Amino acid sequence: MALLAGFAAVCQGVGVAQAGPLALYHEVHQAMGSEFTIDLYAPDQESAERSLELAFEEVDRIEDLLSNYRPTSELSRISREAGAAPVTTDPETFSFIERAVEASKRSDGAFDITVGPLMRAWGFFFNKGRIPSADELSALRKKTGWRYIQLDASRRTVFFTNHVNMELDPGSIGKGYAVDRVVELLRQQGISAALISAGSSSIYGLGSPPGADGWPVNVPDPAHAGRVLSKVVLKDLSLSTGACTEKFFIKNGHRYCHILSPRTMSPVEGMLQTTVLSPSATDSDALSTATFVLGKAGFKSVLQAYPHSSGLIVSGTPRSPAYSMFQWPQPVKLSQSKKEGDRAR
Q1: Where are the domains of the chain?
Q2: How confident is the model over 133-146, as a mean pLDDT?
Q3: How confident is the model at residue 341, as a pLDDT?
């Protein structure tokens, strides 16, 4: 699923690539089960290191707040208690859940923050992989579903109307939210050019490097290893991808993808990759999952609900891929396959 960030690829340490009064600095940080990287331009190493330290502290703070792996997180507390009575939470966590519920509404449930029990049932949390029984999945229908989340903005409360404790899973939106928070922090620090990547699945290009139009990013072709499908330039824009090239398991010769459809309660079939551009990494993160679930038959509808967003999806199989797009801003290089979709800007 690797999205190749052109500027990040040339940075191997801190303090490389001089560009006028600014220099390019690069740092890596492990968080949220993946690798966060930041490339930024700063006038000197001291200011760069200060900004990088603050940025990664912010990522760690978000993980402490929203992780569903940590029982001490605020999101885990809500999951444990909101089935019994409304739970009052802090403004940031409430706003985050509001964003997630809104994404569920706009995607008609293709994105759903309550899929945690499904992820566990299919064995994706600890990379073991299993096929749950039909009875097990039927029972889980009572424990999942974004429509069971009732929010009261005046009191900042979260309540599960099915009266059972559910598991809120930020996996399809949390990294994007962390990226957005880092972008905001870097702007406050006076950084005008930076590339922030959350495990390469969500990337944000802040401003432009000196003398450039933005941050170049290559979108790989999942059907042809090593081939670039499209080249985009990020300037105050995010890019998120959903794919099953890294997280999956194989049972009895069948490959099961880690992206689940809340409607079928099973791994999505017939999809290879989705890539979404949006001004917000929180939105693009959720949209990359929603469009993956909706597939080429329905992905346009959800993108239309988010102004200034665009998408490029690859469906089918590696041997017979199909490429569809909506308002995609750059050329797409196809190989032995037919292009489908709307290219209007």
Answers
A1: 74-164
A2: 93
A3: 47
Q: How confident is the model at residue 129 (pLDDT cuts 50, 70, 90)?
A: confident
Q: How far apart are CA 234 and CA 252, in angstroms?
A: 42
State pLDDT tens for residues 234-247. 999 999 999 987 77
Return the axis-axis angle of helices 45-66 and 174-188, rounded to nearest 10°: 150
Burial readout 228-258 (b: 16 or more C-beta within 10 A, e: otherwise):
ebbebbbeebbbbbbbbeeebbeeeeeebbb
Question: Which DSSP category does 309 fall into?
Answer: -
The C-alpha atoms of residue 84 and residue 163 are separated, in whole angstroms, by 6
Q: Residue written as tokens 């690069």?
A: 26
Largest CA distance in the chain: 64
Using pLDDT thresholds of 50, 70 and 90, give the confidence band for residue 342.
Answer: very low
Q: For residue 87, with 0-12 CB atoms within 10 Å meaning exposed, 13-18 middle and 19 or more buried, which class applies?
A: buried
Please state at what angle helix 45-66 crosses helix 74-81, rounded to 10 degrees.
Answer: 10
Question: Which tokens go with 188?
Answer: 């406050």
How does strand 321-326 pair with strand 339-342?
parallel
Give the number of other Cβ atoms within 10 Å of residue 164's Cβ: 13
Whether pLDDT at 330 is above 70: yes
**Burial class of residue 36, CB neighbours in 10 A (0-12, 13-18, 19+):** buried
How far apart CA 186 and CA 208 sit, in angstroms, is 14
**The amino acid at 301:** S
In sequence order, the 6+-apart residues with CB closer than 8 A to the CB of 40 are 24, 25, 48, 51, 52, 186, 191, 193, 194, 195, 206
The domain made up of 74-164 is a member of CATH 1.10.3980.10: yes
